[in-house]
Design brief:
This protein is mostly beta strands. The chain has one domain: Porin. Helix content is 8%, strand content 50%. It has two helices and 15 strands. A twelve-stranded antiparallel barrel has the order 1-2-3-7-8-9-10-11-12-13-14-15.
């Protein structure tokens, strides 16, 4: 009996240790996230997407969760803004290879806005590492209040918890170039059309119709230990006039992103990615509205099987006050 237990434990340990070796090498793709500020995520700013499209007659599904904690307050003689609250954005995304070099995609988001639960945790984190609180520790805990005033007039006010459908997007992509052998590389042209299906009064949508066009690329390198992938994208987005700060909204925005991923083992990859975009609003001296924004996401990908992966990431605002303090990102991907 003792020998049997020893053999059983040894076999179990070897199975757990060697099982990941049977997996295909994990694919390194960009994080499917963008600026989750309550006054930015309402627009159709797309995640930069993969440089490779889904194979013909194949499909891929993603369930994406972004939980963002916002706290920023700023003012000048003409304006003041307060963005205090948390939002959860759950997105169902389905991609399908409709032809040899083309894919179609539908993205359906569900948005929850509320006071949240992270204030105490973030204040403690800032205290532990000596980071400034920026007034967060003086504000009411777990409050929801998005407010903007200009020239004595209140132009934005949201203070009630809400949930509902966001703005649905229809996307497409064309594979311009792809090399699989040796040093893999890919280039794709992507497009997105965002429809005004979300409630703009609750900041579930912008009320505008947005069209984006961008190019995304990747380049791979085989290393002595695993493989490395560089990726990036650049594009432009055009927007009709929406319902949120309508007279200050811009109609054109540029965006892009760069990142790198390293997979030391077949079942795991570590990634770091920077996203940036030009301002969405004009006629304001507040950086929360009228400044270039950049965010940094760090995390990685776990291969759960040959067809399923899990992305985990944490996003920080590297241009302070232009994006949420922190965003926790999760993406469950299934190929079928």
């Amino acid at each position: 009996m003792i020998h049997f237990k020893i053999i059983y434990k040894l076999a179990l340990g070897l199975t757990v240790f060697f099982y990941p070796l049977a997996l295909q090498a994990v694919e390194i793709t960009p994080f499917q996230t963008q600026n989750r500020s309550p006054v930015m995520q309402i627009f159709g700013l797309p995640s930069i997407g993969s440089a490779t499209i889904v194979a013909f007659k194949k499909a891929e599904g993603n369930i994406i969760l972004d939980h963002a904690s916002n706290y920023v307050t700023d003012s000048n003689p003409r304006e003041n803004i307060l963005l205090d609250g948390e939002s959860t954005r759950i997105t169902l995304e389905v991609r399908y290879g409709i032809a040899r070099r083309f894919e179609g995609e539908v993205e359906i988001p569900f948005v929850v806005s509320g006071g949240g639960f992270l204030d105490s945790f973030i204040e403690g984190y800032h205290d532990t590492f000596g980071f400034p609180q920026g007034g967060r520790d003086q504000a009411p805990r777990n409050r929801l209040l998005y407010q903007y005033r200009r020239d004595g007039q209140e132009r934005l006010h949201v203070d009630k918890t809400s949930y509902g459908l966001g703005d649905i997007r229809v996307k497409g992509a064309w594979q311009l170039y792809q090399k699989m052998e040796g040093k893999p590389a890919a280039l794709a042209l992507r497009a997105s059309l965002k429809l005004p299906t979300g409630d703009s009064h609750q900041l579930h949508g912008s009320g505008s119709t947005d069209f984006s066009l961008w190019i995304t690329a990747s380049d791979g390198y085989n290393l002595a230990r695993g493989h490395l992938t560089l990726f990036g994208a650049a594009g432009i987005m055009a927007m009709t006039d929406g319902q949120v700060l309508r007279d200050q909204q811009r109609n054109w925005v540029g965006f892009g992103g760069v990142g790198v991923g390293w997979s030391p083992l077949r079942w795991i990859a570590f990634k770091i990615q920077a996203n940036a975009h030009t301002p969405f609003y004009r006629e304001s001296d507040l950086r929360e509205l009228n400044a270039v924004s950049a965010q940094l996401t760090m995390g990685g990908t776990l291969a759960l099987s040959d067809r399923t992966t899990l992305d985990l990431g944490v996003t920080e605002d590297i241009i302070v006050s232009t994006a949420p303090d922190v965003v926790f990102h999760l993406n469950f991907r299934l190929k079928f």
